[in-house]
Specification:
about 375 residues, alpha/beta, Aspartate Aminotransferase, domain 1, Aspartate Aminotransferase, domain 2, 2 domains, seven-stranded mixed sheet, 10 helices, 12 strands, cytoplasm, L-serine-pyruvate transaminase activity, aminotransferase
Length: about 375
């Protein structure tokens, strides 16, 4: 393909639009540098690092407007690790899962493979569609993604079933910090920090309710074998001490701490929600104006604010578009690898400036005109 050179006045100031790892702001790197040598390279069992962990925990509680009694847990490993922890430490007997993309399906698979649990109920939809959990007798965990990173489908956060008998467990990895929600409608709201929190992976966080804390005590005390690294009782104990079972990545915590400070200073989750709505709206509006493009998610109410997926007509090669963009410094607009669609997938996380999204649409117009 002949090289396409996008005019400078059509380029975004920052060309990072990946769905994770995501754009890291310079202020975060400056804060990380400020921790050398007092924090970086020091023991995670001592006050300097514990204070950093505590700062992240307290800011998350503030950002989420957490109800009384809710706590922030953290441990090493990403959301994939948390699925295994939930299988061992949260599900009493049987779970139900909403599966409308790759990541909701993976949690359901983890539950199905556990020999000590009944087969989970799975409410499924094809990629681009939406499925919801439904209250059923005997289910003790309802699990669904707040935002499906692979497809760009967004789910409302709501409690399923009776709070007395079942936990509502929400995968928030690509939603947390970018989409507003009612924390009281969840028992476990878990995520990794490499999306809206503009940090790196390798750690998970979870906002947990008093009911979830009670369930963890019940299940982990039942005699079920649980590997130490997957035992949420250990995560509860260590999180209360502002530490993790084993050594965390301090740079990840530092980048997240500064991102949280920036979010709260600008207006918190309500501000972040408005910012991602603005950015994603620019892309959806652009797609709907084109004869050759359409939003992948047909139901407007389920179109993600933070992961925009756009399909293209057969005579427009999305791969060539993303290649041309990458050659001009606009990166990570490729679709989720397993979907195999003629599509772009563009993150509109909180750190991404809406002005850069507006410039991206102009760059798209230019590239497509040259193909």
């Amino acid at each position: 393909m002949e090289q396409i050179s996008i005019p400078q006045d059509l380029l975004p100031a920052d060309g990072r639009f990946g769905c994770g790892p995501s754009k890291v702001r310079t202020a975060q790197l400056n804060f990380l540098n400020s921790l050398q040598p007092q924090v970086l390279g020091t023991s995670h069992r001592q006050a300097p690092v514990k204070n950093l962990v505590q700062s992240v925990q307290q800011q998350l509680l503030e950002l989420f407007k957490a109800p009384s009694g809710y706590e922030i847990l953290l441990a090493n490993g990403g959301a994939t690790t948390f699925w295994d922890s939930a299988v061992h430490s949260l599900i009493r007997t049987q779970s139900q899962h909403a599966s409308f993309g790759e990541f909701g399906a993976k949690f359901a698979t983890a539950a199905k493979q556990a020999p000590f649990l009944a087969d989970p109920q799975i409410m499924a939809a094809q990629p681009g569609g939406f499925a919801a959990c439904e209250a059923v007798d005997g289910i003790d965990v309802y699990a669904y993604p707040h935002n499906e990173t692979s497809t760009g489908v967004m789910s409302p956060v709501r409690r399923i079933g009776s709070a007395d008998t079942a936990l509502t467990v929400v995968d928030a990895t690509s939603a947390a910090g970018g989409i507003d929600f009612d924390a009281a409608a969840t028992d476990v709201y878990y995520f990794s920090p490499q999306k809206n929190f503009a940090s790196d992976g390798g750690i998970w966080f979870a906002l947990v309710s008093p009911a979830a804390l009670e369930r963890i005590t019940e299940v982990t005390g039942s005699g079920r074998y649980i590997p130490e690294t997957l035992n949420l009782a250990g995560a509860v104990d260590n999180s209360a001490k502002h530490q993790t079972l084993n050594t965390p990545a301090l740079a990840t915590l530092a980048l997240m701490d500064e991102q949280l400070r920036w979010m709260l200073q600008n207006g918190g989750l309500q501000w972040a929600d408005a910012r991602t709505k603005e950015s994603s709206g620019l892309l959806y509006d652009w797609a709907e104006r084109q004869s050759f493009a359409t939003p992948f998610v047909s139901a407007t109410e389920h179109r993600s604010q933070v992961v925009v997926t756009i399909d293209f007509a057969d005579d427009i090669d999305a791969t060539k578009i993303s290649q041309a963009l990458r050659a001009n410094g606009i990166v990570d607009t490729e679709p989720y690898r397993k979907l195999g669609r003629n599509q772009l997938r563009i993150a509109t996380f909180t750190a991404i400036d809406p002005q850069d999204v507006a410039q991206l649409t102009r760059a798209l117009d230019y590239v497509i005109s040259k193909l």
